[in-house]
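fyi for ur records
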Amino acid sequence: MNDRPDTRDVLINLAAFQCAWLSLALGAAHGLSGVGIVVAIAVMVLHLRRSPDVIAEAKLMTAALLLGIVVESALMAGGLIVFEQNSSASGQLSYIAPAWILSLWPAFATLLNVTLRPFRKWIVGAIVVGAALVPAAYWAGKVLGAMIIPEPALRSLAVIGLAWAIALPVLFALARFWDGWRDA
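which gave:
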């Protein structure tokens, strides 16, 4: 039996992630981040239900979440991105990125072994995509009102690109290790 994703799996996976991304960004922009988180969780549950190896995919999603906590919180602590939800927070929790953006990381991990499967071994491509394309997603989040990218925006976007030029190859390596869609 071949459990590798087919075209239908890829289309469902891609559409589901786009729903999660848009729900999370718009939810954060309009003070409804909980709604976005519920949609993202539903996308993750759908992914796990469709995956031939739930444990491997759950491990990958958990690792992505942990990496996301480090990356997003570091970007926030460095003043490169600002979340309205954290500007009024006090105490130690104000240094942790908000749940809505952290939810994006395991939701993004659902793409790694399905939609992005053909690119997992292309390390140079992962570095380029991380550095060049991912900052565009952050900029889109800014335009939607989900976050603030302080001036000089180019500096913030360059550091975001650098962080993702490192994070994306790491995520691809983890996806090759925890591949819930490999041949049975």
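Residues 7-177 form one domain. thats all i got for now
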